[in-house]
Amino acid sequence: MPEQLPLPKRLSAEGWKVKIRDLEHGEPPHATVIRGTTDWRWNLTSRQFMDRKPNARDVPTELVRLLRAHHADLVRWWDTTFPDNPVGPREEE
Length: 93
Prior knowledge:
The protein has one domain (3-81). The protein contains 3 helices and 5 strands, in the order E-H-E-E-E-E-H-H. It has helices spanning 9-13, 61-69, 71-81, and strands at 3-4, 16-20, 30-35, 38-43, 48-49. Strands 1-2-3-4-5 form a 5-stranded antiparallel beta sheet. The chain starts with a strand and ends in a 12-residue tail after the last helix.
């Protein structure tokens, strides 16, 4: 089941969502920012948008601030969902 970041009512009412989807096997660690049928991938390592399209400028500044503020939660969710593809370097066993 995907993890979803709680957003302020205004952003939620506008249709914004931030999720760690559970079917992202083999992709670089990222959170998905969603509005309607459009989605942006936020790289959890570099802390920036991964793709040229759709344009990252369409994502509200407030939402980008929330991505940065909740980075640790997003990383934890990713690492829990994809333990074979963690955000950080793997520790020696």
